Amino acid sequence: MRWSAWKVTELPVSLFTREAVTGGGPRYVQLKRLIEAAIRDGAIKPGDALPPERDIAARVALSRVTVRRAVQELVREGVLFQRQGSGTFIKPRLGRVEQSLTALTSFTEDMALRGIGVESVFLDRGLYQPSPEEFIALGLTSGQSVARVWRLRLGNQEPLAIERASLRVEALPDPGVVGTSLYKALEATGMRPVRAIQRISAGLLGKADAALLGVAAGSASLNIARSSYLASGKIVEFTRSIYRADAYDFVAELRLTGTPGENHPQTPA
Description:
Elements: E1 4-5, H1 27-40, E2 48-49, H2 53-60, H3 64-76, E3 80-83, E4 87-90, E5 97-100, H4 107-113, E6 118-128, H5 132-137, E7 146-155, E8 158-168, H6 182-188, E9 195-204, H7 207-213, E10 220-229, E11 235-244, E12 248-251
Parallel strand pairs: 1-2, 5-12
Antiparallel strand pairs: 3-4, 6-7, 7-8, 8-11, 9-10, 10-11
Helix pairs in contact: 1-3, 2-3
């Protein structure tokens, strides 16, 4: 992704001036509103860089502390983001992604269908003693370990979801072999699931998960608990996923169940 860096002299005359910082409330709030309005009006665009804090401070006759507070508030709210050594940028607007609930596909496969580049950042992977939830969800017996693959999933370089997958060890004896796609690794062991049960709920992001997804703590999320099964009916995977609610839609096609005199296909449970 290419980021354009604006020089102060290239900014519109009406932007970042003492006269432009108006309205009620604390001065940092006034500056924050000014930046938000500039983004909304297209004066500065997603991907553009803000001028250095010292230059903004000089133009609007505010202290650097005040400017920094306004910028940090916008970073916290997900309007801006910062790259170490590069500066502060307007966060690109993420187009919403739709995922069907009627097909069992991996995140990688789903993004590929939409022409979206996929990246994974591994948060944890290895063999562990199961938690009580994993023990019950995977139907383990005493002494069995669990394979964990926890990842931050990105689409076109934008964080979209956190996946925390737990699997039976016979399905994934070496979690280190997982690359972009977990299901490709499961194909290699002959244990790719063929069906799954998903439960979807709404939630609010805590600080740690919000930081990973690049949004403000307390932002809305879509939470999915998925239990996946082999053709034999044996459970092989239990995954908890957290999706950004501002970026993801889950879509299901519903059909009318059979009515007297008509032969309608049954909607699967």
